[in-house]
Write a structure and sequence with these properties.
By secondary structure, the protein is of the alpha+beta class. It has one domain: Vaccinia Virus protein VP39 (Rossmann fold). Helices cover 47% and strands 19% of the residues. The protein is built from four helices and four strands. Helix 2 packs parallel to helix 3. It binds S-adenosylmethionine. S-adenosylmethionine (SAM) binds next to helix 3 and helix 4. The site of S-adenosylmethionine has 16 residues, from helix 3 and helix 4.
């Protein structure tokens, strides 16, 4: 798991581009992120679609694994800007 995702999962906060500290919630846990990565890597998946990313925790995990397979991760979230700060 990459350092950025590891740090966010440990501290349960991240910094926005304008240095605002955001406390995350509703995220996919570390164990589940690792499971998703294993499934992608074992099956050599190079394309994925995620519905609902919130603060993007699972998105970081999935993107990391799919990128290792030279692939692409697509995300759709109806409330990304209204509820999750974009
Ligand atoms: C539990 S959160 C996802 C957490 C995320 N997987 C993570 O690891 O941080 C559920 C997400 O689903 C999104 N959502 C809810 N209804 C939706 C809909 N109809 N279409 C797309 N996204 C939706 C919410 O905005 C929210 O971001």
């Amino acid at each position: 798991m990459n350092e950025l995702l590891n740090n966010i999962l440990k501290k349960r906060t991240y910094s926005t581009i304008d240095k605002k500290e955001i406390r995350i919630h509703s995220e996919t846990g570390e164990e589940q992120c690792l499971l998703l990565q294993n499934i992608i890597l074992k099956n050599n998946f190079s394309s994925s679609l995620e519905i609902g990313c919130a603060y993007g925790i699972s998105s970081l995990a999935i993107t990391e694994a799919v990128a290792k397979n030279n692939g692409k991760h697509t995300i759709i979230d109806k409330f990304e800007n209204s509820d999750w700060g974009g």
